[in-house]
Amino acid sequence: MTQRKGSDYAGLSVAIVTPFRDGEVDYSLLRAQIEFQIEAGTNCIVPVGTTGESPTLSHDEHERVISEVIQVVAGRCKVMAGTGSNSTAEALRLTQRAEREGADATLQVAPYYNKPMQEGFYQHFKAVAEAVSIPVCVYNIPGRTGKVIEAETIARLAELPGITMVKEATGSLDMCSQILNQTDLTVLSGDDSLTLPMLAVGAEGVVSVAGNIVPKDMRALVESFAKGSVEEALRLHHQLFPLCKNMLGLATNPIPLKAAMRLLGRDSGEMRLPMTPLDSASEAQLVSTLKAYGLL
């Protein structure tokens, strides 16, 4: 198989949470999370994405979290900084700053709320890709942004040398197949529960939420498939599936994830409004899910 652009990001990337304490970012907890991921063999850490509650961070906090992650990682794994925005000027500023700090790549979410036309998507990502020298991962998640980046637009973007990856979270295997059929981009699953089906059609990794608590299992799934151990990958898929669906289905990410981390003794601090903690009934369901997986 021809090597794809961005294939050095194959494997497990983990979209980490941003820990808060008394309304402030808790950098000691952030450092502990990073060490946990590196010890698990995670290929790439993705700070200040959706899981990192990036919409609630000030610009200064956003930049400092990225800088802190890069400094603590110190080259031991890759860092793909979440620096997207629905303002092209802001995405440029955040991405250029992350590049100066030493980020290996940038995760660029589709501009949200203002719902650009397809030409607007193209020009937005083109502007970012041409302003920096680090690889760009286009993040397609219409459930969050209100509009899909169509496969034809992604095919146009793939012609730009700086755009090397897509984090595919439309929930559509057809979309995944179209991108792989029409481009030389590396596709990373944006849905934990769809990781194996997407690998089966040619994706090469995942940007995982569940990897915050079970990184070794998520990594084993991706690596088993890559080595041709399909039966083992299938076993891990069915082991992980109830955890991914039942935990992340309880409330908007990262609400149930932060609750799970606290229950597992890996406290990631409080939520920041407008995100609110998991209610007691949902937490009881979460406890059952974690017990069924064998984590509690």
TrEMBL record:
The keyword Lyase applies. Pyruvate binds at residues 51, 207. One of its GO terms (biological process) is diaminopimelate biosynthetic process. The record marks 50, 113 as: Part of a proton relay during catalysis. The active site is at residues 139, 167. Keywords: Amino-acid biosynthesis, Cytoplasm, Diaminopimelate biosynthesis, Lyase, Lysine biosynthesis, Schiff base. Pathway: Amino-acid biosynthesis; L-lysine biosynthesis via DAP pathway; (S)-tetrahydrodipicolinate from L-aspartate: step 3/4. It catalyses: L-aspartate 4-semialdehyde + pyruvate = (2S,4S)-4-hydroxy-2,3,4,5-tetrahydrodipicolinate + H2O + H(+). One of its GO terms (molecular function) is 4-hydroxy-tetrahydrodipicolinate synthase activity. It is found in: Cytoplasm. GO terms for cellular component: cytosol. It is an enzyme of class 4 (lyase). Its EC number is 4.3.3.7. InterPro entries: Aldolase_TIM, DapA, DapA-like. Catalyzes the condensation of (S)-aspartate-beta-semialdehyde [(S)-ASA] and pyruvate to 4-hydroxy-tetrahydrodipicolinate (HTPA). Belongs to the DapA family. NCBIfam families: dapA. HAMAP family: DapA. Homotetramer; dimer of dimers. This is 4-hydroxy-tetrahydrodipicolinate synthase. The lineage of its organism: Bacteria, Pseudomonadati, Planctomycetota, Planctomycetia, Pirellulales. The gene is dapA_3.
